[in-house]
Specification:
The structure is a single chain. The chain is mainly alpha-helical and 63 residues long. It has one domain. It is built from two helices and no strands. The longest helix has 31 residues. The chain is elongated.
Length: 63
Amino acid sequence: MNQLMMLFYSMLETLSISDSNPIMEILFALMYLVVGMPILVAVLVIRVVLILLGWDPVPVPWI
């Protein structure tokens, strides 16, 4: 699955570099958002659960 995503990213990167189309750049940015947001939400949920259990995994102030 990871290799498939990397292949897809490299194909998008090749298209955006060779074509330099603003639409492709917007699509590439949207792919990063779609992939990155669930990861960020999962990290925040895990951190909230650990804090509620009484263990602060990373004592860094909230952004």
